[in-house]
Write a structure and sequence with these properties.
13 strands; 48% helix; 14 helices; alpha/beta; Rossmann fold; seven-stranded parallel beta sheet; six-stranded parallel beta sheet
């Protein structure tokens, strides 16, 4: 029986990273192999209960080292694990895990990573050293491959696939409708516009989003605010609710990946700043309007023939409203395009997952 350790940003309440884990575990479940899966998690008991896997406290380096020593394969990913935009220490945590696996001569699979931004040359050299010794590498977009190659990682080792969450199927609208009714007065006869947003260190974005909502509310519609990183997004949502005089459906409780997916599927348009909100929207064939704060947003939008309307630090409220109206007017054509683009991503991901299965022999 193969023992596999999965490393990522798990157990922090970020619905995008939990969706990544759920998607990865689903792919392993499809493989006709006996295997023992262990997830490194900030909340191991919660992760174990939610996904029916072994889980180890990722903050205990001693437990992490012991777990890696006993494993056969380390799977790292997906997500933006190697970046310095949210802090300069986390990148060394993940590099430490790679180094330990290398010392114990374990196979290392770098799975569907988004790379960068990485600013320090020392960090780039460490990434190059580790990745050139990995068993296989996949990244979720072309920009990430170019970034790794600029560090000195061999391009022949890098496959461009897609984010694991692309593999999901639709969840259906029923749960989303039920939750919208639970958290506010939802009128199914009206168009529904959802917001999956985040705060910014460089601007007071709540006032901009209130202006957008006030403009949209000039004609009857449902407005829904959905937190993706609950602890970070809820304070912003609460500020917006207080600043507007209009009725808003505010999702102010934690929900599962499936429940959030169903909410997104119930929308007519999603305005997204969070990457996985945009990915959920694409998989659900819900037209989306992207606002960027990181190159990973631009890379994903480019892959589905979209582009960001503006940057989170300089929100153009008129441009966002115009983009929403355009997406509502062309909803069916956009749905068909998203369906085709997501299918292409699924094909790439399926092909790469077959290669991973072969490594388990």
């Amino acid at each position: 029986m193969k023992k596999i350790v999965i490393s990522g940003y798990h157990g922090f309440g970020n619905i995008g990273d939990e969706a990544i884990l759920k998607a990865m575990l689903a792919e392993f479940d499809k493989m006709d192999r006996e295997m023992e899966l262990t997830v490194l998690s900030q909340k191991p008991e919660e992760t174990s209960n939610n996904y029916n896997v072994n889980a180890v406290d990722r903050s205990s380096l001693w437990k992490v080292v012991k777990t890696l020593r006993k494993t056969d394969i380390l799977v790292s990913g997906g997500g933006s694990l190697l970046q310095e935009s949210t802090g300069k220490l986390s990148i060394f945590y993940y590099l430490f895990i790679y180094f330990v696996a290398m010392i114990f001569r374990k196979k290392t699979i770098i799975f569907s990573h988004g790379i960068g931004p990485v600013y320090r040359s020392f960090s780039k050299k460490l990434i190059c050293f580790v990745f050139n010794r990995a068993s296989c590498i996949s990244v979720r977009d072309k920009r990430s491959k170019e970034e790794l190659m600029s560090y000195g990682v061999s391009g022949d080792k890098i496959d461009v696939t897609a984010d694991p969450v692309i593999s999901f199927k639709k969840f259906g609208r029923d749960k989303g409708v039920e939750l919208f009714n639970t958290f506010g007065m939802y009128d199914p006869s009206l168009e529904t516009i959802g917001f999956a947003i985040k705060s910014s260190k460089g601007a007071q974005v709540e006032e901009d989003f209130v202006k957008i909502i006030n403009r949209l509310k000039e004609k009857p519609c449902n407005i829904v605010l959905i937190p993706f990183h609950y602890s970070e997004d809820l304070p912003l949502i609460e500020k917006i609710v207080k600043l507007t005089e209009h009725h808003i459906i505010s999702i102010n409780e934690r929900h599962s990946v499936g429940e959030i997916f169903s909410m997104i599927e119930t929308l007519d348009v999603l305005v997204g700043v969070r990457l996985h909100a945009l990915i959920f929207s694409a998989v659900s064939e819900t037209p989306l309007v992207g606002i960027t704060y990181d190159p990973k947003i631009d890379a994903f939008l480019e892959s589905i023939h979209e582009e960001a309307v503006c940057d989170i630090d300089t929100i153009d409220t008129e441009a966002v409203v115009s983009a929403i109206e355009m997406h509502l007017e062309n909803k069916e054509a956009i749905k068909n395009r998203l369906k085709m683009d997501v299918f292409k991503h699924k094909v790439l991901l399926t092909k790469y997952n077959s290669g991973i299965e072969a490594m388990l022999d």
